[in-house]
Specification:
With about 650 residues, the protein is an alpha+beta fold. About 20% of the residues lie in helices and about 45% in strands.
Amino acid sequence: MQHVLKWVGITLLVLIVAIALLLAFFDWNRLRAPISSQISSQLDRRFEIQGDLDVKLGWTPRITVNKIELANAEWGSEPEMLSLDRLVFSIRLPDLLKGKIVLPEIHLSRPRVLLEKNADGKGNWAFKTDEETETERTEFPKIGRLTLDESKLVYRDPTLDTELDISASAVGAAKEQAVELQGQGRFEGEPFTLKAQGGSLLELWEKRKPYPVDLEMTAGETKVVVEGTFADPVQLREPKLSIELQGDSLDMLTPFIGVPMAETPSYKFNGHVTRSGESWHIHDLDGKMGGSDIAGEVTYSTPEERPFLQANIKSRRLDFKDLVGFIGVDPTPEEKERPRIFPDEPYSPEAMRSADADVNFYSDNIITPNLPIDEFKTHLHVDHGKLTLDPLNFRIDIGQIASVITMDAGKDLIVTKADIKIREVPLKRLLADTQFEQESDGMFFGQIGLDTTGNSVAEMLGRGNGDVTLLMEQGHISSLLVELAGLDVAESLGLLLTEDKSTRVRCIIGNFKVNDGIMKTAPFMIDTADTNINITGQIDLGKETVDLRLDANPKDVSLLAARVPVNVTGTFKSPTVMPDRSSLAAKAGISAALGVLLTPVATIIPWVDWGLGEDSACHALIDEAQADDAAAQRKPSPGRSGNKGPAKRNAD
């Protein structure tokens, strides 16, 4: 046995010496072709080691690779995606045998990396590799010293007019060393800068110690500042970050988050960022947008590669003009005088289809220039291009304007439906802070139902079809307000009968049939204490013009038995109100005609739903009109058998 062991030992020693001599004099360049071929096969892209390959043996081998190239995609703007003059690294074999990767040093000389997209949005980093495997933090190499010499990263996206030039540096011993990135260029045509700094490389290995990050990025006037830590920076796990966002308009964030945002005034927000699975959460969001305060919670995720934004937002002080960008109006104060009233900035169906959202927004402190609102509440839901606002509610005193709006952007032309209900809105509040407030009173009710197509508010209204009904009862209208239309007009309608400061209005019933953007009266009646006013004509929402005629009919025989009709014509922005001198109104009272005019309204207004009681003036007006209409239908025709005699007929 001793003899056998002796020769086994000699044989092993000879083999070890032979292997050592072989490795010592081995030409490592013979491995360049097999290594290059293997990597090229795995990436389906040319990979080549063009320079010398050398290995210094020991328990910590030191490998040097010169001149490395990785080919770009076939459509790339340059031949190489990656080039490297020299790579030098050492690796500890004892640790490698234990399953750990320890690299005492890495030196990269003149690394050049080009990342770019083509016109179809495909990146050159998409390789035909096997299924990607997730790398745990414990598998990240432990690096003792990293040196980057003249490193450069270029990112190009011609579809977004974007080109970024970023340099990286890492010097010093591992414990004191910090990784730094600096970049500049343009992002969507705007000047771009980047400054980022991470902790030491050893902190990447120490999983119990959070890894610090500090980032500042600007793109035009948009600025993002992030500071905090990651429990695992490789997988971006367990972030505890503070974030600051500011810029000229929220729509500039769209390229970063993939969710279309509206044009807004300048903003500045602060918050704290955490992560749960694939969802990023912004907690304690607080800041300003224009003259409005914004606070709440925001969650962003990309389930099935589709961006999804969820938010609960509350405004402590909401300036309503800060939201006009969401309906297609320029929110900037430098906006020039517009020739039209309705917003004509188009929505993008493609943008509406690009992401989903679920947003709740609430405010009970609202500033509006013309319409006093006490509370605003809405729930926005977007699912594959179908947008729903349910509800979209405004509270005014005890009244409410409650709406449900749907917009379907499944095709290039948006299909919109609107259901709006107006309940008990006080006229006095609508005239708040004006000289007419004290002498005006009454409650407004209404219902609007429209179906339309179009990609802007102006286009939608110009193509709308549906029904509009408005009603006001038991109110007063300031005589000063009536006088704004001119004294002749007021006298023509018989509204200035006394020196009282207001004119009592029993009921206003206005019904419009809407067809292709044209609202035709069907009918429109004003019942005052002394006069009934019949309004006929149409309003063209597409052209923003009005063509109405107002005929006044006194209830009793008086000097006002013949009134001059009033014509309201022109554009919404510059209407003309003039008495019609060419004709006289009919001298007969209007009560006989009320039945014909108001009976259709009685069938379309849901009185009970609107909250009108049996003692409602409008209810009584229609009941009276219906009774007169029924009586007129029962009255026998002259000359028919059994009819009343001439005297009786004349009495009737």
